[in-house]
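dumping this here before i forget
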Amino acid sequence: MIAHSGAAHTASHMLVRIADYAVAAGSTQLVTNGLGSCVAIVLYDRDAKVGALAHILLPNEVLSALHELPGKFASSAIPVMVRRMRELKGTGGIEARLVGGASMFAPLLVAGAPSLGARNVSSARTALAEAGIPIVGEDVGGDHGRSVTFDLDTGSVHVRSIARGDVHL
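structure:
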């Protein structure tokens, strides 16, 4: 098992915090909580049962003075997660799921301007396309928060939301 130093973990459960990521193999669950405008990017190699989860905070580096956290942006998280998945014997047949990207503060938006959540989703889609990774499931947008549990044994992604109930991707 490999995890970014910021991820809290036990033998079978890894908590991925904001602007961080984790990569693991085997009987592990990767979990992130409190997705509002943030986006969870879930990567999975079904054949190798190797997976990764990032909790993306911002759509691009221009919006932040601190760049040292690869999990903060889709453009930096995806390459490092793919590299670490391959170190864990991932075969390269990686698929993605996206969760989050809500517009939590719609009344504060300038008319016609995309929300931070929409920009996070767009940046994740762009970075995945550039990496050649297909998106096979999404639960994005809206105005509600979410939490994610990703089970590497089964590949299932369980999305919890008080506002909308449970979704399985």
